[in-house]
Amino acid sequence: MIETRDVVKTHGKTTVLHAVSVQIPEQQLTAIIGPNGAGKSTLLSMVSRLAPMTAGTATVGGLDVANTASDALAKVMAILRQDNQSALRLTVRDLVGFGRFPHSKGRMTAEDVRHVDEALDFLQLNALADRYLDELSGGQRQRAYIAMVLCQDTPYILLDEPLNNLDMAHAASMMKLLRRMVQERGKTVVVVLHDINFASCYADHIIAMKDGHVAYEGGPLLVVRDEVLSALYGMDVTVHEIQGQRLCHYFA
Ligand SMILES: Nc1ncnc2c1ncn2[C@@H]1O[C@H](COP(=O)(O)OP(=O)(O)OP(=O)(O)O)[C@@H](O)[C@H]1O
Ligand SMILES: [Mg+2]
């Protein structure tokens, strides 16, 4: 389980997370939704120690993130950041290989190479493996970063807006892949999503954030409802049930 207790984050005098306590269930797919600026990325960066929290605690698989050694943490949790910036004069294969660093410490074994090949395969990047990152389209590059994260083969996987830049076919195949990670490999996956319909159809659990608070939390049946989504986004949202799935309609 990933658990936060009363996690607070302030920037100067502004509080962007207000004592957030969540329990993210083990071996499930959890979606974090909410408007821009709600605190979704901030919460993920507290859990993954990309930034220090002002107060509170977070544990991942029982490890307190504040005082666990970085290499130990990197073996249990991998994160895709919202903004990936790295040297673009790297090939896709090299980037994905970096995902093995916590295991290989720079000396790749046959097992590490197997993980790299599998991640390239999962993300349909085989044909692009020897291309430099600056020779890829936005969606291809996004898939390369996700391959790097999956290649780390950690029990906990945090992905901040993994569907950015992906076309609808790649977005759907990404969500299916994440479900397989949960069902076949027992991973605990947390994804920040803006497309509520993907959250509705693929997530087991949804955390809806607004203004630095958890506004609603529960399964899609509980969260994907007209009144919940209309209040969350401050606009009229209508949820329709189509072939057993709740899909929302929000065009004026
Ligand atoms: N370094 C910073 N200094 C001051 N304020 C910050 C800083 N980083 C983030 N914030 C503020 O914290 C709040 C939460 O930001 P966060 O990035 O967590 O939002 P988000 O829910 O991920 O939004 P988005 O959907 O746009 O990615 C925002 O109001 C943002 O302006
Ligand atoms: Mg964000």
What would you say this structure looks like, in words?
This protein has one domain: 3-Layer(aba) Sandwich (Rossmann fold), CATH 3.40.50. It is of the alpha/beta class and 252 residues long. It is globular. The chain contains ten helices and twelve strands. 39% of the residues are buried. A hairpin with a 2-residue loop joins strand 11 and strand 12. Helix 3 runs parallel beside helix 6 and helix 5 runs antiparallel to helix 6. The longest helix is centred in the C-terminal third of the chain and has 18 residues. The strands form three sheets. The chain has a six-stranded mixed beta sheet, sandwiched between helices.
Write the SSE topology:
Layout: E1 2-11, E2 14-24, E3 29-33, H1 40-47, E4 55-60, E5 63-64, H2 70-76, E6 77-80, H3 92-98, H4 101-104, H5 110-122, H6 138-151, E7 156-160, H7 168-185, E8 188-192, H8 196-202, E9 205-210, E10 213-218, H9 220-223, H10 226-233, E11 238-242, E12 245-249
Parallel strand pairs: 3-8, 3-9, 6-7, 7-8
Antiparallel strand pairs: 1-2, 1-4, 4-5, 9-10, 11-12
Helix pairs in contact: 3-6, 5-6
The site of magnesium ion has 4 residues, from helix 1.
InterPro entries: AAA+_ATPase, ABC_transporter-like_ATP-bd, P-loop_NTPase, Siderophore_ABC-ATPase
GO molecular function: ATP binding
Main location: membrane
